[in-house]
Structure formats: structure tokens, C-alpha cells
Request: fold
Amino acid sequence: MPEASDVQRGLEDVVALESRICFIDGRQGRLIYQGYDIRDLAARSTFEEVAYLLWYGRLPSAQQLADLKSRLSELRALPDPLARQIDALPADATPMDILRTAVSALALLEPEETKPGASSIGGAQRLTAVLPTILGHFHRRRAGKPALRPRPELSAAAYLVYALLDREPTELEAKVVDVCLILHADHELNASTFAARVTASTLSDLYSAVTSAIGTLKGPLHGGANERVMELLAEIQSVDRVEEVVKGKLARHERIMGFGHRVYKVEDPRATILREWSRRMGEEEGNLHYYELLRKVEEVVHREKGLYPNVDLYSGSVYSLLGIPPDLFTPIFAASRVAGWTAHVLEEYQDLRLIRPTAKYVGAIDLTYVPVGQRS
Ligand code: SDX
Reply:
């Protein structure tokens, strides 16, 4: 019988499996994808190259990368029945709910990828390619923008901006979106990736595993934090109000979104990179309002609570400067993390073990059954 001391709430520090995909050194603040440091990848790689790395375990040759880019462009298209189904859903639906529903519906239209245990890099590429199209199709309809056109010549990052904003990004915008996609692509056994692996471990299919992951990422303690960071900035409004608002929230034991992490005990290396891009984007746009507020929030939260920023603190400021609405921030996170989710599902299938922890039972035991007619 497990003892109370055996319970690791939230599975904190529980090592659930071996993986080659991602390494996080929480004490040194390091993030590694298949052996490569995130700082090198963010500075020198592209999202397509990182997706290849996550799926195949090695960086692609020039030809392999060209083939992947071409394949992802081909796989962006939305089947008409799915486009019609999305159009029949409420225009005021949450984009994360649209994404979750659309992936689940897509599975019905692509049965070859949804047989029990079905999982292939082809399915991973399909989902990675089509998520931006699902988001763009839904957002354009609710925003009254013209329908998406196939733009096979655009990179994944540029296509995402085009899909959402109906314009091509500047060179700087394309680079910063590519960096955001790289930074969000994987993060070891975070909650949504773990959800995907639990689903795959039952020999369920890739599309079901990604549907599980999207539902998990939606939570504000996980993927939804960057949207709430912008709500916090809207509440604070000016640098001279940061101290009062943040200390008030901490005094009420409220969480300050964008801070703290289950694994990092120092600054999240992705926050370090995004802070610099938030500054560069702000300078480019002549609007350092968000950046200056966030720097002051960092100072107060660290002084008062000893917490460090995580990936969600600055990402919203970058997306806001691009003109992307806040309820699309977490969907963009999903459009990147789908590369990691699918890589983990593929790895789970290669060394399958049903994921099934146990619980310490603390309820009653050996009660006598009383027939309903004799109960008060
Ligand atoms: C992501 O796991 C991943 O890898 C996730 C992710 C990924 O790439 O997939 O990195 C993405 O989800 C980043 C995190 C985004 N979420 C937020 O920013 C929400 C705010 N953060 C917190 O809710 C919290 O830090 C978590 C959920 C991220 C981690 O929480 P833990 O590890 O369960 O820590 P905890 O709740 O036990 O808190 C420990 C202490 C507590 O203080 P005491 O009650 O013991 O006095 O730290 C405090 C907490 O109150 N604390 C915070 C805080 N985070 C922790 N206090 C105020 N604000 C916060 N943000």
C-alpha cells in the first residue's frame, strides 16, 4: 500500500520515461533539442529545420530541408468538408477550441492516420502544416478578411503571419516569428506533451494524441499564460503603477502570469531570447511600452517573490506588436508545439509502455451495502 510520503503531487520530479528529444537543465537554465542548444537553434536555424531535427533526431541536409519545406507547403490545404464544418461553428468560439475540434474532425477525414497505433512522420507533417491553415481560416471568417490562398512559396513563419493577418511579414517580423516557433517547438514532458504520450501509450492514434495535447495546452497554467500577461499589462497601464498592481496581486496570493516554472529554477532561456526580441520589435515599431512595463514587472516579481520569467512573459508583447489578437497567442504556441507533440508520440510508439501511475487511496473501505429502500 503506498504511503502518503510516496505521493508526488503533479508528478513533480517524477522521471516517467527515457527520451532523446529534449533536455532541460533547470538549474543551469539550458534547453537542448536532440543535442543542440536552443540559443544556437534560435539564432541560426528555422522552424522547418527544427521540426526535422525533432522528428528524425538529426539536422537535415540542404536537399532534405528543401524536400520537407515543399512537403509541408503541399500539406497546408484544408479539406472542403472541414472548412465547411469550421464555418458552421460559432464565430465567437475560442480559437483553441476551434483547433481542438478541427484536429479531431480532420481525423475522420483522414482515416489512414487514425487506425489504432497509426502514427507516421507523414501524419506529423500533415498536422504541423495544417494547423496554421485551420487558424487562418477561422480567424479570417470572424474578422471579415478575404479567404486564405495557397502560398507554397512562403516559409512556415511567413505563412502563419499571412494566414492570420492577410499580409506578408517584413524580414524582421518573419525572423521573430520563426524564432518564436523554434522556441515553442518542444519542452520535454510538459503537461500537453505528457498528455499526448499518455494517449499514444494506449496505442491510440496520432490525431487523438494531438487533440489531447491541444485541450491540455489551453489551460492558463500552461499555454494560456501569455494571453493573460497582456491582460495584466492592460490592467497596469503605466510603469509607475507596476509596483502597486503586482504587489497587490501577490498580497492576495494571485499568480503573476509569465513567471515561475516547474523545472527552471533560474531564468527560462527562452525568456532571455524573447526579451531581446521584444525590445528589438518595440524599437522597430517605435513602441517600447510593453517592453518597459515587462522589465519593471520582472524587477518587482523577482524582488518580492524570487521568481524568474518563463517563455510566456515576452511572447505576447511580440505577437501584439505584430498585430495578432491575444486569443491567437496560445494557438500559435500549439502551431509550434505540434512538432514536439508528434515527435514524442513517434518516440512513444518506438518503445511503447502503457502510462498508468497509481494513486494513494484515502477514501473509506469495506462499507456495508444498504439497499436503496432502507437508506434515509
Ligand atoms: C509553460 O512545463 C513546461 O515546460 C511548460 C512550458 C512549456 O514550454 O511547455 O514551459 C510552458 O507552461 C510555462 C508556464 C506558464 N504558466 C504561467 O506563467 C502561470 C504562472 N506560473 C505558475 O502558475 C507556476 O509557476 C507554474 C504552474 C508554472 C509552476 O508551478 P509549480 O511548479 O506547481 O509551483 P507551485 O505552484 O508549487 O509554486 C511554488 C511557489 C508557491 O508559493 P507558496 O504558495 O509555496 O508560497 O511559488 C509560487 C507559489 O505561490 N508561485 C507563484 C508563481 N509561480 C509559483 N507566485 C506568484 N506568481 C507565479 N507565477
Observations:
- The first strand starts at residue 22 and ends at 25.
- Residues 10, 187, 190, 221-222, 225, 255-262, 305, 307, 310-312 surround s-citryldethia Coenzyme A (CB under 6 Å).
